[in-house]
Design brief:
Elements (H helix, E strand, L loop, with lengths): L12 E6 L4 E7 L2 E7 L1 H22 L16 H5 L4
Antiparallel strand pairs: 1-2, 2-3
Length: about 90
């Protein structure tokens, strides 16, 4: 797969939540959002991969100034998915 040929969008926000069975990530672009469910193992590997990419970026371009707040609740909760009757 040639990643240069894949259409890209600028993701404005990413939030995540979890249940005992899976993690859910919601990625939004304007008024549109896509949700992705991942197994705990896939989520762990994603976090490791992202950490590696950030580390490599900072080696080349310097530190990234960003603050994360764990108190923001995901707008997508696993109880909402289960309760939707799907």
């Amino acid at each position: 797969m040639d990643f240069n040929k894949i259409p890209k969008q600028f993701c404005e926000n990413v939030v995540a939540g979890h249940s005992q069975e899976n993690f859910v990530m919601l990625m939004s672009v304007g008024e549109t959002a896509s949700a992705y469910a991942l197994t705990p193992q896939h989520m762990k590997r994603l976090v490791q991969s992202l950490g590696h990419q950030v580390e490599e970026y900072e080696k080349k371009f310097g530190p990234i100034n960003a603050k994360w707040s764990p108190c923001i609740e995901s707008p997508l909760q696993s109880k909402d998915i289960k309760g939707s009757g799907r």
